[in-house]
Amino acid sequence: MDPLTLLAAARLSYEALKSGIAVGRELQGMAADLGSLFESVAGITRAAADPKGSLLAGKSAQQVAMEAFAAKAEADQMMADLKNHFIGEFGLAAWDQVLAATTQIKKQQKVDALEAEKNMEEFLHSVMVWGSVFITVLLVIATIVLIAIGLVHR
To answer: CA-to-CA distance for 57 and 52, rounded, in angstroms?
Structure first.
């Protein structure tokens, strides 16, 4: 996704969080918005690190680079504001704990995705092997039947 689309999603999540905080909602109750903001900011960071994907959209290199930089700067500011509020309410140790948990969960998700991909490859391989065996058996039976029919009619 391009940085501007990701930034729009980040803004929505950020504004929802700010509104929730303003009316006294607990951050735990806004987990979906927090998760969405984290994901959007991570996407913006990836897009800013390698912005060439937007060149296919017919934008100039300068425009792509400026959009990526501006989106990253705004996303960083949103995250800094959120971090300051979170630390003010729960403390620095809690913020570090959230970041550590986020990192651990992402690592586990990658491991799970790789394992699921490996399992799917093994399953498809098994299907191909057993499918080949089944077709071979059918061809042998068909050949035997055709030979038997040919011998009977002579």
So the answer is: 10
End-to-end CA, the chain: 71
Residue 60 φ then ψ, to 5°: -75, 160
> Interior CA angle at 109 toward 108 and 115, to 5°?
90
Domain ranges of the chain: 3-90, 109-154
pTM above 0.85, yes or no: no
* Helix (DSSP H) and strand (DSSP E) numbers for the chain: 4, 0
* Angle, in degrees to the nearest 10, between helices 61-90 and 3-22: 20
pLDDT in tens, 100-120: 888 898 899 999 999 999 999
